[in-house]
């Protein structure tokens, strides 16, 4: 398993090793001791999976407020996505900056997004499945989001706004300048 630090502190790109032969391959996608050595004292309590049928589906940018803030370990076991994390920690020197990475079934990469970040993705092909482990349970009361179209974020989404497949909820999310302080 290879761990790479991103340009935003605390985000980790993880590439599991694949051992293959003529039957296919085997990969250890999570190993607690190695993960904790890189990410710190993290425990997962829930495993989520989503399916997006259409290419150009955008989900996010989502987060949960404290005390139910979630860290997420995200991977794409089917298809290809552009995965995006936005730093919402107001005391961070990278506040408001984002990190985007392609996750796919082919590359096997995973992105560790600690609490304090908004998370979203855009599907690059049809029929994508996204699986992620989270550090706290879903809480409707603490569920929040940030508008994926916010021009101040300068995210180079691979789909035009008019062509994006989104939910009504995600289209109504606030811009960063209207969000207020959500994480210290």
UniProtKB/TrEMBL annotation:
EC number(s) per entry: 5.1.3.13
Reaction(s) the record says it catalyses: dTDP-4-dehydro-6-deoxy-alpha-D-glucose = dTDP-4-dehydro-beta-L-rhamnose
Keyword Isomerase on entry: yes
Domain of life: Bacteria
MF terms (GO), sorted A to Z: dTDP-4-dehydrorhamnose 3,5-epimerase activity
Keywords: Isomerase
Associated pathway: Carbohydrate biosynthesis; dTDP-L-rhamnose biosynthesis
Xref: Pfam families: dTDP_sugar_isom
Quaternary state and interactors: Homodimer.
Family under the similarity heading: Belongs to the dTDP-4-dehydrorhamnose 3,5-epimerase family.
PANTHER family the record matches: DTDP-6-DEOXY-D-GLUCOSE-3,5 EPIMERASE (PTHR21047), THYMIDINE DIPHOSPHO-4-KETO-RHAMNOSE 3,5-EPIMERASE (PTHR21047:SF2)
Role, per record: Catalyzes the epimerization of the C3' and C5'positions of dTDP-6-deoxy-D-xylo-4-hexulose, forming dTDP-6-deoxy-L-lyxo-4-hexulose.
Name this polypeptide is given: dTDP-4-dehydrorhamnose 3,5-epimerase
């Amino acid at each position: 398993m290879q761990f790479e630090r991103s340009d935003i502190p605390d985000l980790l790109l993880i590439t599991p090793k694949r051992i293959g032969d003529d039957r296919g391959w085997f990969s250890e996608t999570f190993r607690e001791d190695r993960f904790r050595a890189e990410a710190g004292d993290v425990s997962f309590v829930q495993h989520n999976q989503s399916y997006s049928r259409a290419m150009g589906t955008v989900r996010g940018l989502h987060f949960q407020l404290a005390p139910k803030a979630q860290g997420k370990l995200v991977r794409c076991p089917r298809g290809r996505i552009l995965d995006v994390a936005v730093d919402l920690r107001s005391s961070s020197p990278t506040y408001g900056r984002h990190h985007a990475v392609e996750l796919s079934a082919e590359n096997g990469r995973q992105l560790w997004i600690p609490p304090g970040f908004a998370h979203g993705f855009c599907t690059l092909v049809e029929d994508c499945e996204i699986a992620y482990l989270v550090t706290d349970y879903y809480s409707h009361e603490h569920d929040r989001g940030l508008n994926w179209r916010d021009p101040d974020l300068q995210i180079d989404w691979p789909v035009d706004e008019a062509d994006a497949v989104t939910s009504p909820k995600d289209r109504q999310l606030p811009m960063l300048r209207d969000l207020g302080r959500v994480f210290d």
